[in-house]
Amino acid sequence: MEPIKKIVIVGGGTSGWIAASVLSNQFRPDVLEVELVESEDIGTIGVGESTIPPFVGLIRNLGIDEQHFIQKVHATFKLGIRFPEWSNLGESYFHPFGSIGVRFGIYEFYQAWLKAKSMGHDSGLQEFAPCSVMADKHKFFLPQEAQKTPIGGASYAMHIDARLAADYLRGYAENRGVTRTEGMVTEVTQKEDGSIASLRLKSGKEVHGDFFIDCTGFFSLLIEKTLGVGFEDWSRFLPCDKAVAVQTENTGEALPYTISTAREAGWTWRIPLQHRTGNGYVYSSEHCSDDEARARLLECVDGKLLTEPMLIPFRTGIRESFWKKNCVSVGLAGGFIEPLEATAIHLVVRGMDFFLRYFPDKSCEPALINEYNRRMRMDYEEIRDFVVLHYCVTEREDTPFWQHCKTMAIPDTLRERIELFKAHGTLREGVDELFRSPSWQSVFEGMGIRPANYSPRIDNLDYKLIEDTLAEARKSIAAMVETLPSHDQFIRQKYLAL
User: Fold this and answer.
1) 49 near 14, Cβ under 8 Å?
2) Which residues of this protein are catalytic (predicted)?
3) CATH class of 242-313
């Protein structure tokens, strides 16, 4: 075995510095040298500001003090996402993090709730989700500090300033021995077997490595331009292909959730930070011009503009292979779904987690490469299906965009999930999937899809027990949430930006 002694990361931004941070956390500098090459002349998109709970896990796994990180990147807390106007005009639903209800012994909470609804029970599913109740009241508390309470099943993520987060992780990685090289890559040299040997920079400097990580975004300098890996287009399932983003001054309180509002040709986001608000309009260029999208976004924002609107074209899909020869593509270089469920940063972390799991020597054995590519494809397809679900089951027909969404082709894997759920509320769950039952149940319910029947096994439970348990759970969650500080109060008490 000939071990890898040096890894070169090409591209910075959030993806590059997450990759550098993960490697520097796992390897001593004398065991593995890590060099990151980036150019200040190449801008980063910098709008990946909404995260999901695994991001909090990343911060903890890196040994970063959470309070310090939140202060430095001006973060706020996120309990989930509110989705106005998706199912029908005038309707809204919430996708919470964490649990919904507690099991009735061997029986799922959701099945017991379905039976109660069939008996005329007046409860809503989200009344049993601690995150939903907290979000509705604009309250927040760290669930790990209230584990044996009615909100102990809650979870949370963060809204972050992407540029500040990248700078923070850069400092973290450099303090652990990662070398940053400023420069524009003008040439990539390859060995006889096609693997990458070195990079030549505009300055004339050559950067050699045993392994390379492509974090060059949609440009995909290494995986596509050099190694020729193709791209599998998913636009037939995901109709949006552009976004326009703008930052504004804060107005009012910072809500502990993202707002993703369906619009005429896509949807707008609103992400509150401590020092400003991030806004954007994700849309289909077939149904909306860039000028129309910009104007529509500016109609929707509150507060004074802090930046000029920035246009971001994108394509949805994945690489035919994420890893080829001695190169792994991470982040936008490997694939992109769209930002609706804020999974882009998670897929960067996931890519690095799997890379560590299948970490090679210089031979890069095909079995490792094949398994890495298989697992990453599974993750992307699962998230793709979950995002497509938000569009394809809509009842809206008021614009050509929504008419298209209602009738467009969807992946067979998603169609099977929908049909299975419609029968008895059963969910097909794969290996180590990101979105678990509460997420699928929340979106199905929010979009107006409820199973035809509950599982017959629930008839083993005494209905009085179900009724009493629901009443107590609903009451106890609501009562505790009333005692919590508001999200703004919680931030002010402990997390104001440094």
Assistant:
1) no
2) 78
3) alpha beta
Q: Is 227 annotated as a binding residue?
A: no
Structure tokens at 7: 């890894």
Cα-Cα-Cα-Cα dihedral sign, residues 126, 127, 129, 133: positive
Question: What is the DSSP track for 83-112?
Answer: EETSSSTT-EEEEESS--S--BTTB-HHHH
State the pTM of this model.
Answer: 0.96
**Catalytic residue, candidates 78, 139, 242, 325:** 78
| Residue 78 labelled as part of a binding site | yes
Question: What's the CATH architecture for 6-49+161-234+316-381?
Answer: 3-Layer(bba) Sandwich (3.50)
* Residue 78 designated active-site: yes
Do 214 and 223 meet the contact criterion of CB atoms below 8 Å apart? yes
Domain with CATH 3.50.50.60 in the chain: 6-49+161-234+316-381
Give CA–CA dist 368/359, Å, rounded. 8
Q: Identify whether the C-beta of residue 111 lies closer than 8 Å to the C-beta of residue 425.
A: yes
Q: Is 434 annotated as a binding residue?
A: no
Q: What does the alpha-carbon distance between residue 82 and residue 154 come to, in Å, rounded to a whole number? A: 16
The answer to whether the annotation marks 185 as part of a ligand binding site is: yes
Place of tokens 């505009």: 202
Q: Residue 142 is encoded by which pair of tokens?
A: 């760290």
Q: What is the pLDDT along the chain (498 residues), one digit of tens a residue?
A: 899 999 999 999 999 999 999 999 999 999 999 999 998 876 665 556 999 999 999 999 999 999 999 999 999 999 999 999 999 999 999 999 999 999 999 999 999 999 999 999 999 999 999 999 999 999 999 999 998 999 999 999 999 999 999 999 999 999 999 999 999 999 999 999 999 999 999 999 999 999 999 999 999 999 999 999 999 999 999 999 999 999 999 998 999 999 999 999 999 999 999 999 999 999 999 999 999 999 999 999 999 999 999 999 999 999 999 999 999 999 999 999 999 999 999 999 999 999 999 999 999 999 999 999 999 999 999 999 999 999 999 999 999 999 999 999 999 999 999 999 999 999 987 778 899 999 999 999 999 999 999 999 999 999 999 999 999 999 999 999 999 999 999 999 988 876
Every domain of the chain with CATH number 3.30.9.100 lies at 242-313
Q: Write the single-letter amino acid at 246.
A: V
3-class SS shares of the chain: helix, strand, coil, % to 5: 40, 20, 40
